[in-house]
């Protein structure tokens, strides 16, 4: 009898050794985890009354936990989608800022170039050699 309770505890702890991790807690899975036949735990046998109660309690807790987990996963997925949308907006803003920065740098370059260009100055002396 003890092996059934140990098997149930391993399933509750998420550390099964004979069946897959994350398996649903059922009478069948407890029996398989205990190394017994899948149909070994029968409701009509008085020896299994306490075990069946414990299995049903663990089963309801597992379902409630799974429900809460699925809600949490849903919220996390929604949060991820919002973050992805925000990231896309920020990337677009960054691209616009880069383009504007390049445009301003080009404009500054052209202005600096114009400032350093020699101005056409009228010479004081005409081509004939006389002062104007």
Salient structural properties:
132 residues; mainly alpha
Structure description:
This protein has helices at residues 2-13, 27-33, 49-116. It is mainly alpha-helical and 132 residues long. The protein has one domain (2-114). α1 crosses α2 and α1 (2-13) runs parallel beside α3 (49-116). The longest helix is centred in the middle third of the chain and has 68 residues, at 49-116. The protein is rod-shaped. The mean pLDDT is 89.
Q: How is the secondary structure organized here?
A:
Layout: H1 2-13, H2 27-33, H3 49-116
Helix pairs in contact: 1-2, 1-3
What can be said about this structure in brief?
The protein has 132 residues and is mainly α. It has three helices and no strands.
Note the beta-strand portion: under 5%
The shape is rod-shaped
Distance between the termini: 124 Å
The protein's oligomeric status is single chain
Structural class: mainly alpha
Question: Over the alpha carbons, how many angstroms does the gyration radius reach?
Answer: 40 Å
Extended strand count: 0
């Amino acid at each position: 009898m003890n092996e059934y309770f140990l098997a149930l505890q391993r399933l509750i702890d998420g550390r099964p050794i004979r069946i897959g991790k994350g398996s649903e807690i059922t009478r069948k899975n407890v029996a398989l985890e205990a190394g017994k036949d899948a149909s070994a735990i029968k409701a009509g046998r008085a020896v299994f009354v306490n075990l069946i109660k414990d299995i049903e309690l663990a089963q309801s807790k597992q379902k409630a936990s799974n429900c809460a987990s699925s809600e949490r996963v849903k919220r996390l997925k929604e949060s991820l989608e919002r973050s992805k949308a925000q990231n896309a907006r920020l990337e677009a803003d960054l691209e616009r800022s880069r383009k504007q920065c390049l445009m301003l740098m080009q404009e500054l370059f052209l202005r600096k170039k114009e400032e350093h260009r020699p101005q056409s100055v009228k010479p004081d002396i005409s081509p004939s050699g006389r002062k104007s």
